[in-house]
Amino acid sequence: MKDVYSVLDANKRKSWLVIVLFNVFVIGTVYAILQFFGYHQFSLMLAVVIASFSSLINYYMGDRLVVASMRAKPVKKREYPKLVQAVENISLATGLPMPKVYIIPSNGLNAMATGRDPKHASVLVTAGLVDRLNKSELEAVIAHEFGHIANYDIRLMTFLSIAVGVVTIFIDMVRRGMMFGRGRDDNGSNRGGIMTIIGLVLIIFAPLVARLIQLAISRSRELLADTYSVKVTKQPNALIGALVKISQMPRVPQASLNTAHFFIASPFGTTKSFLVKLFATHPPVEERIKALQEMAGELE
Question: Which end of the chain has fewer surrounding CB within 10 Å, N or C?
Answer without folding.
Answer: C
